[in-house]
Amino acid sequence: MIDYICDYGKTIESRDVAPTVDPGFLRQMLP
After folding, report:
1. Of 20, 19, 3, residue with least CA distance to 11
2. What is d(CA 26, CA 15) in angstroms, rounded to the nearest whole number?
3. 3-state percent breakdown (helix, strand, coil) of the chain, nearest 5
4. What's the confidence (pLDDT) of residue 19?
5. pLDDT, position 3
6. What angle do CA 1, 13, 25 make, to 5 degrees?
7. Would the pTM of this model clear 0.70, i.e. be above it?
8. pLDDT score for 16
9. Is the dihedral of CA 22, 28, 29, 31 positive or negative?
10. Distances in whole angstroms, Cα of residue 4 to Cα of each of 15, 20, 30
């Protein structure tokens, strides 16, 4: 988990500010 946090901090500048998913995308995955 510590490695994940450190890697996230190193790559934060290359990540999108807004999510790249459409609203409601999770609804179709629910039973």
Report:
1. 3
2. 21
3. 50, 0, 50
4. 81
5. 92
6. 70
7. no
8. 82
9. positive
10. 14, 21, 27
